[in-house]
Amino acid sequence: MKQYISALKYLLLLVLGIALMVLAFRGQDWGKLLEDLREADYVWVAASLIVCFLAHVVRAIRWRMMISPLGHGTPSILSACYAIIIGYMANVAFPRMGEVSRCGVINKTDNIPIIKLIGTVIVERVVDLLMLLIILALGIILQFDLLANFLYQNVLVKLDGSAGNLTILVFAGLVLLLAIGLFYLLMKKREWGIKNKLYKLFMDMKSGIMSVKGLEDKTGFVFCSVLIWFLYGLSTYLCFFALEATSGLGVFAALSVLVFSSLGMIVPVQGGIGAFHYMVSEGLLVYDIPKSEGLAYALLIHSSQTILILFAGAISLILIMLKTSKAIRNG
Asked: Has residue 285 got a pLDDT over 50?
């Protein structure tokens, strides 16, 4: 039964992603869109991908800093990179599975408890959210007239009416599911010894979350956190030059598009499909980039990065399997 529910959940998320994709590309001239993609300068796309990949490497380095204080050893940079890329690859097919997947990789290669690793990932997500909020605030301060009006029209205004009612219904549904889950756990308390298990789970996760306090190089951690988002922004900026329509955009526009794209990736659909394209194309309208050109840019950067993740993820998965199988034979 659990397998059917999981399958249904991922199917519904896929349908949502497709619906958002249809919404984003509705009424567009596909001939013009394909022409823009054919005429794109893929040298700039390649440069954008290289910078994006460097951001993943820095993320792996930062994660190692957080794992080290756990007291179970520190994985190699290669293992951490493999885990990060495999996690991103998992997110393409199964939203939010990447966090668990990458923890599973390090568990296999370095025998570090998964639940403690998940604690470090929670901290990482909080730090990334903080960085995103800082970038958003910086973008609004530097381009207040442009972005404040966009956020008002596309976020606050659209929460009125039916959209607002839908938001309330979704929230109520989530609360109901949480209540049912808690009730089920309480009913199974005696059978599973759930109290002790939840306590152990909490303590293990807490040690991962508190790992940030034991960082040996806090300055390096902050530097890596800033560098990751700088590289994301640089990747976004370099890809502007791939299309004639966006080649004139500046650094501030890249800052804004980085925020829009990140908000699109937060939506729990496979690989951010639809949501990413919609948010980026809508955001580029602020800079007088027509919808069709904005979608061409969104399609170009999203597709190229997805291909990179799938290719690098497949190689990482093979290398991890070879490494673990060799360790088993030697063990």
From this structure: yes
